[in-house]
């Protein structure tokens, strides 16, 4: 039981961090390629403080589900 919980916790943390980084840096990279001008910084603050954390929560849940459900199953 504790091994599955540990894997799920690590999966949540890893999935959340990876998703946040991909969303944030992907947005910055895409805006740089598309020449998006954000003079006051409101757009990137919306991405950094609202959109990326919301998607990171979903990525963390997906990571916890994936890594928590994999591994050795206990014998019954």
Give a summary of the structure in a few sentences:
The protein has 76 residues and is mostly helical.
Mean of residue pLDDT values: 92
Tally of strands: 0
- Pick out the low-confidence regions: none
Largest sheet features: none
Task: Tell me the β content.
Answer: under 5%
Task: Give an overview of the whole structure.
Keywords: Membrane, Transmembrane, Transmembrane helix. The chain crosses the membrane at residues 12-31, 43-67. With 76 residues, the chain is mainly α. It is 79% helix and 0% strand. Helix 1 packs antiparallel against helix 2. The longest helix is centred in the first third of the chain and has 32 residues, at 2-33. The mean pLDDT is 92.
What topology emerges from the helices and strands here?
Layout: H1 2-33, H2 42-69
